[in-house]
Fold this protein.
Amino acid sequence: QELNEQGQGPQGQGQRHPGKAAVSDGLAGQMLKRAARNAVGIVAVHACGSLTDTCLQIAMLLRAPIAAMPCCYTSTARGVPLGVRRALGVAMAADVQRCTQLQSAGCYGTVDFSAIPKWISPMNR
């Protein structure tokens, strides 16, 4: 549904999205239209080894939201100091490094990190 210059739908009503307030000002409406045209999100499930890092690089390049569930951490903590890898383990050190890279890219307001239950998959966060 197209929005007019004021960010409103055809009946002059604010455009509504589930769980979101109405878009009522012109700038927000224009931003919403632009984002909808270029909407890209990346989901990486069981992105083995460095494939997770490739997906993260693409997301940062596109400034796209990403949800990643990495697996197989072989060679993924390169560049992380040995003492950090020893203290945290390779998998956690790699994930901390990835979070730091995403935050440093400046295109993500929040970088969140959580673990899924081990009974679902013991290899993934």
Observations:
- Residues 90-104 form the longest helix (15 residues).
- The mean pLDDT is 74.
